[in-house]
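User: Please predict structures.

Assistant: First:
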Amino acid sequence: MMGGSRLKRTALLCNNDLITGLAVTCDGSHEHLPWDVHEGVLATKLETAYPHQFCKHFVSLLLQHLTQKGCRDGLNLLEGDPANSSGARVVTTQAKTKKAASFQVIPEFCRRTRWTVPGQLRSTLQTTQWLGPDKIPGFKAPGAPALRVTPLLSSATDVLVEVPWNPQEFVAKARLAGHPPHLCVGVPPALRKAILACSKQPAAKVIETRAAQSRRWLQRAQELQLAENDFKAKLPEHIRGSLRNKRILLFKEMLEASHYADKAVADDLAQGFDLVGHLDLPAGWSTDFRPAFLSLKDLSQLTQETNHQVIKEVEDSSQFLEELWQKSLDEVSKGWSEGPFREQDLPQGAVISKRFAIQQGSKVRPIDDLSQSHINEAFGSMGKIELHDVETIAASAILFLRHAGQGLLGKTIDLKSASRQLPLSEEALNMAYVAVKDPSSGEVRFFRLLCLPFGAVAAVHAFIRVSLAICHIGNTFWHLPWSSTRQLAPSAEASACFLLDLLGFEFDRDGDKAPPFQEGKAALCGGPTGRLPKGFMRRISDIINAPAYVRTVTSETVYAFTDASQEGKSKVINELERLESIAVLLLFILAREFLRGKHVMCYLDNEAARITLLKLTSDSEALTLLSNACALLEQELEMIPFYARVPSKSNMADAPSRLDFTGLPHNCRFQDQVLLAEMAKLVNSLVGRCA
């Protein structure tokens, strides 16, 4: 009844009666496999705990319950492939591909309705079926090619009716949905305004605006100075020391004046940041729930054991002892930490983390391992970290170039010891001890950190929150997009430095980390030995890391629908997936000049092919080769593709794949000879690669 191969009972615990519809027993209309041992393998290992049919029924009941509660369903939870399908096997664990694979551009169905049907019809529906619109008495779905009908186990008369889009409706929705990662919509609003101001206004006006804003906020800083002093005087000593040069009240006022969503970041900065616990969703951030794996009680119960382990490992350490010890003492002199202490001096319940070092070029960087001490496991968050990543930078540059009509210069500004500029909360201090070996005595000593440690998950959230807030202020008041035309570059650099100085954030002013505005920089190096192997490796690296070119004309979106058919042919496992991938590849080959430099929304109705095109790897070697061939063409044609799902019933390419060209103009078709010739080239190329 529920899709299992063997007879078994499943108990569910739920605080809602929505699952009572699953309380059924097998009708005995089919045979069950035995619970035995076959070739040394227990049957329990072969039987899935939650069969696919069971999951579909459960989701049906859940959707029904949510609909009754007023929720609108935006995901087609009933369409997933079984766990043993090729579509499920190719799902990647990498975050970006996983997100793209699960992202649904358009809902699978335009409408879902609970409908009462005659008892005779209901008795014939044991599983989900596709029925003609005229088969459901009284149900109206004009233009729908078919209806998907699922019996609701909680009712003897009701079914769930799902109405798919017809092909014309789906194409219209696709055009409205656009291209999810389209570069023209990937620029944050404040950054977009700054770019448009710099590119559309005369340079003199932009320079005057920046100067006026500098005068405005400098005057306001002077007016707030006494209040700033009084405010800091009430702060805990370690926070007061960390924020001694920062203007918190001015920072807060700037956030208010710029209408920044996460205004609470200024208050959190003044209170210090926690290392453990749950970080609520910052205003303006997308939701991405990451629960803490340990409670504070769990952490305290583990502390004694982990402290002992940390101390033992530090005692046995022998690398970078002098460097770690000296850097730890330097932090004390800068007010970033306290110590050194002996173990008997530590307060009860203190959490100790190991400090170790890594070599970065000529420098040694200390890292605090807050994972071994379980502190990172005790931190949870609600907000999704969204940086100004490569896509945002590329989108911003394209927008700037398109409106400025001239070349751009870029610059990075590096905050000095960024995490050390942000204080810990009072509650976090007892969890901020690090163990370091004294190289002169061999004794393990301890330092208490007063600022965010490099190695804490909480530090990443805190630093990014503060950085995004500063960036928003720069975008809003000084029109600082962090790239500039040559004429505006001196003003941009001066304004950016003024803003950071005004708020009290330290940054590198010279050296490798403070480059001037420039078009770009590249460096190559090599030693006197192993020159030939190094040359080969450099060449490989050049190919692997070759930049993707995105041009200012890359704005038009093309919508492509592909399909493959095996009508009249015996179906071979994975053959259809290959044909679907070939259809996409042939599209890129035959329409290469039309697609060049465009955003391309590829809609296909085979999940295995779609996910492999995203992931570029599969259990099937043929699918992997085809997906990589598509990726090579994407790069060659400078396209920005996105692969989305279209249901077969809504796919405008479904009929043509079965040689039904009704309604399509004849002069737009490729001749069979051309298609066959390209197919032959493609097959020969793939055979050559497999040989």
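Second:
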Amino acid sequence: MSGHTNAHGPVRVKVCVDTPRAVPADRARELADAVPPFVTSVLVTMPDSAAECVDLAERVGVDAVQVHGDLPPEEVGRLRGAFDGDVLLATDHATAPEYADAVDGLVVDSVDEAGAGGTGRTHDWERTREVVHELDVPVVLAGGLVPSNVADAVRVVRPFAVDVASGVEREDRPGRKDGDAVRAFVRRAKRTGERDEEVTAGP
């Protein structure tokens, strides 16, 4: 599992199927059912088609989907039209504009050759800041974020939210989250986001 947080705290909990942090669909369903009220459950997957993604999302019972891989913009658009929930796409800053009209949100990540994300590496935050300013779609910043750098990332990029997975995992048990690291990450992201909101709203 992984998640998004913004200035107001954790807002999304993600369950991963057909990705490097995958769990079986039935286990994903159990996790989605356990997500508390007012927190969005998100299926993270690498589908071959819109139809495959919709079928899996309905079986797992999630509020939103986050798509990785190489689906073309028109197929992502079909997914958005067929799925009763938000559709997010993980991409890099270079290809983000191609998908802006086809999704409800973009997760700008440090993708690998397979387009999978989850690399644990940061990318050019200044380029991602340009994406935030240029596109009329919420942008979630991902890629190599950890408690020690998330505040700087938020200050530079000013994203809608930030995404973390490996950056809060236990060193001795990859895939398992470290509770202290999660709390530190959320606290620092939230504190920086709140300060940015105060500056934006100031005289």
